[in-house]
Structures are given as C-alpha cells and as structure tokens.
Write a sequence for this structure.
C-alpha cells in the first residue's frame, strides 16, 4: 500500500478541536488526518481523540471515515481494537487498518 496523509490540526503533535458530543461528561482533544490510499478513489479521514478523564486507563480512541471489505462480497471489516493507552499505539492501529484498505468501501456513519 502506498499512502500519504495530511494532519489537519495546527500543532505538530496534536491539538484540541471541538467535538459535538452532547451526551458526554468528559472533555476531549484530538487530531484528524486525511489519507490518500493507492487504489481508493475516496479521500479517507482518520481521527484520534483523547479523553481528558484521568480515570480512563485507555484514553485514546481512533476511528476512520470508511470501512473496507476484504472481498467483493461486501462483508465489511470493522476494527476490533480502537481504545489504546497511547497516541502512538492508536496511530499504529489506524494506519495498520488503512494498509489493508481496498474497494468496496462503506462510510462510517458515526464519523
């Protein structure tokens, strides 16, 4: 897979951005990325958020704007591990998921 990304926050590491999470009791900060994946016509976005709740053991959560199907049958592969202890681990899991991405795609309605 050949891919490139553009980080769309204004800080080298990550910075705060507003999330509309009306029912949440916690504050969040995060980073959003835009990926170009070879062979995929859609622009793929990925996001890593960190809950600022100091009691949460795995405060980082990653998600992507689209899911992929490893076959043409359309049975989509959804990531099973999304919560992590560190930003780097979340980034590694997210880019690992993207490394296998291929058509057909399904939009993530929660992104």
């Amino acid at each position: 897979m050949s891919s490139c990304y553009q980080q769309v926050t204004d800080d080298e590491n990550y910075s705060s951005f507003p999330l509309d999470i009306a029912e949440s009791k916690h504050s969040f900060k995060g980073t959003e990325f835009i990926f170009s994946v070879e062979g995929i016509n859609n622009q793929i976005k990925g996001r890593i958020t960190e809950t600022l709740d100091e009691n949460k053991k795995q405060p980082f959560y990653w998600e992507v704007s689209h899911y992929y199907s490893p076959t043409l049958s359309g049975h989509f592969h959804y990531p099973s591990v999304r919560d992590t202890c560190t930003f780097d681990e979340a980034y590694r899991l997210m880019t690992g998921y993207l490394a296998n991405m291929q058509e057909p795609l399904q939009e993530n309605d929660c992104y």
User: Anything to note?
Assistant: The longest helix spans residues 87-99. The radius of gyration is 14 Å. Residues 3-107 form one domain. The longest strand covers residues 28-37.
